[in-house]
Amino acid sequence: MIRLPEPLHRWGPMALFIGALGMALWRAPSAEPPAFEPPPPAKASALPAQFAGEQLPRVAESAHAATLAQLPDGRIAAAWFAGSREGADDVAIWFSTLEPSGWSTPSRIASRETTAGGTFAYLRKIGNPVLYREGNWLHLWYVSVALGGWAGSSINHSQSTDGGRTWSKPTKLQTSPFANISTLVRIPPVPLADGGLGLPVYHEFIAKHGEWLRLSATGRIVDKIRMPHEVRTLQPAVVALDAQRALAVLRDAGPGPGRVRTAITANGGQQWQAGPTLDVPNPNSSVALLRLPSGRLLLAGNPQNNRDAMLLWLSADEGQTWQASRTIESAADGGAEFSYPSLLLARDGRIHLAYTWRRQGIKHVAFSEAWLEGEAQ
Q: What is the CATH number for 358?
């Protein structure tokens, strides 16, 4: 038997223990301070005033929560959830692309069964998809619930490299140490200067508030920061104003008649603080936000009391004040709903808007910035 020299025999185990303890307590160096990918310089759009709209193919009795992205070849892609009703076990995430002949036949890209199989977890329901293209990668985030209502949601992630024809096995994001629940997604991310993404998310369990999920260029969660507010808020939509400043608009989760709430950051999303309440109504419903080629901001949402109209507002002062621009659709019949808008600026300068149409399907409209100059109607 080989015996260690007496000093090593006596102190070796202690040295190994101290080394192991040091490894356990070591933390990786902090990530570089975040910064947003600055928006392009403002310029006038060359597109004349134009507007067009159509329904996406209907796949089920109920449809909700559309999201948009532009593929590398220029086609517009849409995803939404549909089934017999919201929260039913037959709800799936559907995907379609805008072809020269119109919207393609939708394909089912995620379901309760495929998500459970990919994440090895029991699931009751899925919902709220978010699409985002990054180079040749098309990302899909969506929520799933194992127990309870939407407050028990987790976020799943899948990706496609062939324009949405095939998708990777979904993985679940570890966003919370408490059973990894109550982090939901609704609005696409904002690109960061380091190649990462800032994903607006929100929390619903007990409290309701917006959050900011910082992802590295490899998809690793770097940080999660709360967007504080004196009232309950949900579903932040974020635009970068420059490399350090960004504006978030949030759904007012009540009680009482609501207004669009805001949160602001001046250090790349490291901290957020409550901003001024906008003079824009919000009946506890999702809103969408977009920076236009001119540098103005475009906001889509609903009127004061309900979701029976889809409206647009414009701001020329980085979101401090807003003017009514256009009414996309409205109805006087009881129960009509036009809600959950999704906005996308295409590379040709055309603005795309998709929204829930009467909970029966998804409607898509496209228009130019010049069209917004017309009288509000």
A: 2.120.10.10
